[in-house]
Amino acid sequence: NIMFNLWKKWRQQRHVELRCAVLKAIVANGANAYGVPIADSVNQALGRTKWWNEISIARLYCCLDELEGDGLIFSYTMPGGAERSYRAKRHYYLTRFGKLVLEKESGAVV
User: Fold this and answer.
1) What is the SS3 assignment for 34?
2) Reported pTM
């Protein structure tokens, strides 16, 4: 039971670390904050530089959906250009509440 509680605490800490890294990546990418650039920034921030330990796009989108549901970020869809075969991109920005949470969790001024 003690091992399970330690594992649960470790998983919760890793989840908070990922959420903060995603919020920081959105701020760092500014107007270019959509899926792949966010994933690249998160992987770099967490030191995940090998293909076998990078965050998956699926996990990233789960985290983004969760953050949006919590009111920390908002998203909107932009039409894609010829370089993306005209596929749309979903861009992300921090809400005012998201900025406050990021400042509290990381100590960084946003």
Assistant:
1) strand
2) 0.81
Provide the token pair at 8.
Answer: 């649960």
Which tokens belong to 34? 């959509």
Give the phi and the psi of residue 107 in degrees, each rounded to 5: 80, 0
Name, in order, each residue with C-beta under 8 angstroms of 63's C-beta and a sequence gap of 6 or more. 18, 19, 22
State whether residue 72 is helix, strand or coil: coil
* pLDDT recorded at residue 85: 78
Helix or strand run (H / E) with residue 92: strand 89-94
- Going by C-beta distance under 8 Å and a sequence separation of 6 or more, which residues neighbour residue 78? 88, 89, 90, 91
Q: Which residues contact 23 (CB under 8 A, 6 or more apart)?
A: 67, 72, 73, 94, 98, 101, 102
Q: Which of 22-36, 45-59, 70-84 has the lowest mean pLDDT?
A: 45-59
Percent of the chain whose predicted confidence (pLDDT) is above 70: 95
Tens digit of pLDDT for each residue in 1-11? 787 777 777 77
